[in-house]
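User: My collaborator sent over this chain with a note saying "see what the structure looks like." That's all I know about it. Can you take a look?
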Amino acid sequence: MLPLVTEPLGSDSRALLGFPFPLQSGSSRLTSVHMITDELREKLQKTVLFREFTDQEMSELLELLDPLSAKPGEVVVRQDEVGDCMFIVVKGTCRVVHHKGGRVIELAVMSEGDFFGELALVDEGPRSADVIAISEVALLKISQAVIAAVAGVYPTAAFKLLIAIGRIMVERLRLANQRYVDSLLFPLQGKD
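Assistant: Without extra context I'll predict from the sequence alone. Here is the result:
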């Protein structure tokens, strides 16, 4: 069985994000914090999830997120386990695989800017697939508690995030529906 990433990995995960973690003491600490926030904010604000965020909203959200890292082969989330958070891929790639009847079905490959696990923010239900690191991966974890905290201070930011997640979920659902319809029609093609 592959190892499961269960908690933040400290300075290793921060270094993987490409920023000078751990922070050093003294006056350079303020500069490091500012550089970290600016670089990460810039990277994330290019993604569909945070495109509408103001700089202040982004800074406040970044303070609440947990950085995680995973080595190749490590499981970030495991199918059928209950979840309460989603993850954003900041660096690296992960594959999403579903296990059914002894078969392993690759559903997707996630890379920088992609996210997964968003359904757990809604229902705390079981994970629908494993997500396994292909390469060294840096992730940011967004839990239900983070969404609630953001909603308390910046309700507009929480609304923007949830709307963005909803739009992407709808897009994924439409794609899945089309694949399903195509799979039903495929056997009928050529029988005209």
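A starting point for your reply to your collaborator: Helices lie at 11-16, 28-45, 55-64, 120-123, 144-153, 155-185.
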